[in-house]
Amino acid sequence: GERAANGVRDLGKVLQKARQVFRSLAPSLIDTFLGAHVVEQVLRILIADEQHFNRLRIERWFNQLSYFRIAPVQNLDELLSLVEYGGEPFDLLVINAALPGGKLDLLDYCLDNRQLDRVLIYDGQQAQLPPVPACERQKIQVSHASLPDPGTIQRLMAIIDPRLPFVGTVISVR
User: Fold this and answer.
1) φ, ψ for residue 163, nearest 5 deg
2) What is the DSSP string of 125-162?
3) DSSP state of 81
4) Between 18 and 67, whose confidence is greater?
5) Which of 48, 54, 76, 78 has its CA 20 to 30 A from that of 105?
6) Using CA atoms, how far apart are residues 65 and 94, in angstroms rounded to an integer?
């Protein structure tokens, strides 16, 4: 019994020392891996893209910023249903400009919809979207990139969620 208690105390000391060393090197990583409380962001995010891989990749980038209230959709019908019947508004819609496939004026829909607080439309050049009026650029951002990169998402979330510290770094996803 005493020998086991000593072993547990020794293990506790080793773990405490490991936390100190790792915390000095990468504070957020050690908090995640050694069980410290990680604050989860509470914003509601909707990702709309026909490609499963794109939805997963974007969701992963949000997860790395501690956003987990994410609803991925793969077609226009799912998007319209979630926005209309989702109850509380979405804080952010991240959507591939090609998703509506000509069935919906995406800019008008997003501008007029009170269920969408902010919108990031990507692959905007491919879909030949008209320019967003200057007075509406706070609500809607259009990116010509075929997929938003982690830096774009991090900068956008620093604007949307002032609790998120912006350190100017880019998250690496492999």
Assistant:
1) -75, -20
2) TTTTPPPPPGGGTTTEEE--SSS--HHHHHHHHHHH-T
3) H
4) 67
5) 54
6) 15
